[in-house]
Design goal:
Rossmann fold; 3-stranded antiparallel beta sheet
Amino acid sequence: MNIEVFSDREQLSTSAARHAAEALRQAIGQRGKACVVAATGISQFDFLDHLAREPRTDWSRTIFFHLDEYLGLPPQHPAGFRHYLKERVEDRLHPEAFHFIDGSTADPLAECRRLAALIRPLSIDLLFAGIGQNGHLAFNDPPADFEIEDPFRVVELDEQSRLQQFEEGWFASLAEVPTQAITMSIRQILKAREIICLAPGKRKAEIVRQCLEEEISPLRPASVLRTHERATLYLDEESASLRKR
């Protein structure tokens, strides 16, 4: 895994967007299309904005999936990841297709099977990710399942993970944060040809240190990125502050 450290979130986001745009253009040039998995959260705001402004990217040749989605929220809910990505990616970039996770479904297992049938025939060229304050990767909270082969799965959300969503302002109370989600599995994430992971901010400093310096473990799900040859972790000075130099 490569590690890039920048002075602030703005420089981090700009550099990561350039990296992502070049990877997409290369994939389109080589294979005619690019398949992308998008992430959500505060860490992705500036990055997606800069990515949308990158020149010479033929978004009509891109196919998108997304990493995870709450169960029980309607598609238009402002805290839902579908709403987030429709506004910031689909409506702005107009990709060929965006295969959203339907978190409002009455049959989550059937939705996992539907998504699996869509993604299995494809090779993922580029995957965007963040690191949760508890080390989660997508909604694979600790202890994460590193072995499950299913591309998507239903999970119970960790209390710390739900608390992070509330503290970041997505919900008016902790009680409003859903307790279940559909998430892309760890094994499916690692199948991406390239991974760009953003983890800015002081609140991420300790978990970043753990994921980089302690044992790769389901107790620190994002630590598994160290096993991927083409994963790049983008940090700012705050999130990198506790790691060994």
